[in-house]
DNA sequence: ATAATATTTCGATAATCATCGAAATATGAA
DNA sequence: TTCATATTTCGATGATTATCGAAATATTAT
């Protein structure tokens, strides 16, 4: 993961509506939700929603597919995992910390879709 | 983790210099680095560096301690792990995805310090 | 074709953020 | 105390971002 693209992903997530959108989609899974349902669920008007979905997509965090009149959005789990990995990369230089500290509970997307 | 504070943490990380600072500190471990060394390593002038360190601290991502004239900064690994957990929480609602998809490589801070 | 529904683009406005020189503050050394 | 070093605060400037009404585009149903 390039640093620039990591910053873009983090910036995309660093906004209340977009973070809520992303988390809802993570919980929804690979099937995703269509734009209208996301907007209804989170109370975001269409123009604003579209802007945010575009930001998340541009950052590479979402995949979308058209189904008739509807556009379905789902997380790009692979990209998200790459971001998480980038943030935690080489923690403590693999030194004393790896012995002194226990791993935390899983904090990666389980989904590879 | 409250959503507001997650947004604040993500916003703090969503800036090139700050992400570089944070990653350098993650790799350095709990002992941390003093401000001057961070600035020298990353090529950031003092005023700007101080601004960014304050942002990261305000967001709860860094701990600091004074040692003589020096101020040492280190990641708050616990807070960071909470953020990673929040992002991946309840992935795919614990449904089909948990069976269909394998966990990825560890992507959490190993350090609890 | 016409109408209805879903989504995106445009455009203007208001708000927030990054940078860094200069000055201020804090601590240790001579 | 006086000086040198480390870090932070102040203040001004330029740049980026969020919001959303109105209009445009796209797809399906009648």
Automatic annotation (TrEMBL), chains A, B:
Q: Which Gene3D superfamilies match?
A: Winged helix-like DNA-binding domain superfamily/Winged helix DNA-binding domain (1.10.10.10)
One Pfam family name from the record?
A: HTH_20
Q: Which PROSITE patterns match?
A: HTH_ARSR_2 (PS50987)
Q: Which SUPFAM superfamilies match?
A: Winged helix' DNA-binding domain
Q: Which UniProt keywords apply?
A: DNA-binding, Transcription, Transcription regulation
Q: Which superkingdom heads the taxonomic lineage of this protein's source?
A: Bacteria
Q: Which SMART domains match?
A: HTH_ARSR (SM00418)
Give GO MF terms, alphabetically.
DNA binding; DNA-binding transcription factor activity
In this chain the HTH arsR-type domain maps to: 1-95
InterPro entries per the record? Answer: ArsR-like_HTH (IPR011991), HTH_ArsR_DNA-bd_dom (IPR001845), Metal_resp_trans_reg (IPR051011), WH-like_DNA-bd_sf (IPR036388), WH_DNA-bd_sf (IPR036390)
Q: Which NCBIfam families match?
A: HTH_metalloreg (NF033788)
PANTHER family annotated for this entry? ARSENICAL RESISTANCE OPERON REPRESSOR ARSR-RELATED
- Kindly provide the name given to this protein in its UniProt entry: Helix-turn-helix transcriptional regulator
Source species taxonomy: Bacteria, Pseudomonadati, Pseudomonadota, Gammaproteobacteria, Nevskiales
